[in-house]
Write a structure and sequence with these properties.
mainly alpha; disordered C terminus
Length: 179
């Protein structure tokens, strides 16, 4: 009930107070769009540079938002639960002979990038030195393994032909022509 009262108050405030300036003139114009406007340049955060199209949404820098309340609790549960301890139990995150850490490694292809994206964010959100140290082991190895075409991550072998592993793209945009 308290939540509903808060929402009603915000709506009332917006329409009664927020829509008029001191002279009684409308100062706020509400618009509806299918997607964000991409014609302007974002002056606060680094985004895509030409010739790439602007991104619809830009990930905010880590630490620019501090989680509180229920979202903080959920992040703490992830940190103290499976996400934070996956490296202790997952064969795919085993460092010995991992394809992300060792050229020609035998395992760890798919799970690592998905896990690392969330784990690294948690390490910096919580400013946890041990998690940051673990994160940097993986990130430094990934960057060190960049090949001459700019790809990072494991290579797979198909007979004598080297093939790029599409999982390292992490966004699923890899096509057969990339081979």
């Amino acid at each position: 009930m308290r939540f509903i009262k808060s929402i009603c108050f915000l709506i009332f405030t917006f329409f009664v107070i927020g829509t008029s300036d001191c002279n009684g003139q409308n100062s706020i114009k509400a618009t509806n769009s299918f997607r964000p406007v991409l014609t302007g340049q974002n002056n606060w955060y680094v985004g895509n540079k030409a010739p790439l199209l602007p991104a619809s949404f830009i990930k905010l820098p880590l630490g620019s938002i501090k989680p509180e309340g229920w979202i903080l609790k959920l992040l703490e549960l992830q940190k103290d639960g499976l996400s934070g301890h996956l490296g202790e139990i997952s064969a795919w995150l085993e460092k010995k002979d991992n394809a992300w850490l060792t050229e020609g490694g035998e395992h760890g292809w798919e799970e690592v990038p998905y896990w690392l994206r969330g784990y690294a964010d948690m390490a910096f959100i919580f400013d946890d030195p041990e998690m940051k140290k673990e994160t940097m082991i993986w990130i430094e190895a990934i960057l060190k393994g960049q090949n001459e075409r700019g790809w990072v991550g494991p290579e797979i072998r198909n007979g004598e032909k080297e093939m790029s592993d599409c999982w390292r793209d992490m966004m699923g945009r890899c096509t057969r022509q990339d081979y």
